[in-house]
Amino acid sequence: MTTKRIQTIEKIFKKTTSSKQIHEGVLFVENTDGDFSYSKGYGGKDMDSPLLMASITKLFTTTCIIALLEKGQLSLEDRLSKYFDKALLSSIHVYGGKEYSFDLTLSDLLFQVSGLPDVFEEGKDSVKSRAIEEDYYTTFSEQVVMVKKLKPHFAPRTKRKAYYADINFDMLGEIIEKTTNTTLAEAYKKYIFEPLALESTYLPEHENDFIPNIYYKDKSIYRPKVIRSSRASGGCITTARELMIFMKAFFGGELFNKVIFEKLTASNKLQASMGPIYYGSGYMRIPLDGLITLFMGKGELMGHSGSTGSFAFFYPVKDIFMVGDLNQMGNAALPIRLSMKLAMMTK
């Protein structure tokens, strides 16, 4: 990449961090071979500063599911009733007067096509609104109870529909534990951290595990219990440096059979509140050739963002990986906008 292109990336990041909403951040951009590499910190953050992955954690959960699929230890067509007892599943999905709870499959969860509601964003006592005010811990069973109090959005596998809901991945996390007969943290360690020699990436389990503060607008809040409750849907901690290593491995076929992964091609557009995002087999897909870019882009971004400002995307058209964090819970669109601008302008 030329000096001019580096200057363009710097200009985009500087403009993003000049916003009053951003108090700290980090950006790391690199191509597959690493012969182009650019990083920039802001507000005291750098490539080795701990950052909350939030929903990027879903890529770790996806990795474990595909690795177990490759080993033949589970099938995406498995019904949830194989892994959860009847009492827990009963009434979790009742739509149009019909119960679908026992028809749900692993595939429905991975592709976000179960139709289940999202307790993080929905309801008068949503996880997000409550977390802004206080720190509290919820068990998986309690999360399921919360889901049952909300209405599903459509019948499972309704054509061209997807609905982003954390419970889909929280359930996949439980399934990973049941299949491997170990903790989710140990599964992440076996299938991700150890193969990639990640030393600063972990799933917090104990009170003394370090968890970074999160900004909500101008307020810095500390929510360790909320983060430890998020687990498979959003609980991991990493650094920009190690997140880059993971992203290259995830899309490069180092962690599981790439052929299996590439066969999982279906994707559906998420709910309107998620903007231009589609969801594939455990990851976000953001097309750059549509109205939102005035049809000026090509291809798509693949990866994930988090509700706290984290982002990790691969742009195959230009062989660019971009990871980092803007640490702002008050505007989940910020990392998406930044990633799209970087993809559109890095040539």
TrEMBL record:
Keyword Iron attributed: no
Gene3D superfamilies: DD-peptidase/beta-lactamase superfamily
SUPFAM superfamilies linked to this entry: beta-lactamase/transpeptidase-like
UniProt domain Beta-lactamase-related: residue ranges: 24-331
The entry's keywords: Hydrolase
Superkingdom: Bacteria
GO molecular function: hydrolase activity
Protein name: Beta-lactamase-related domain-containing protein
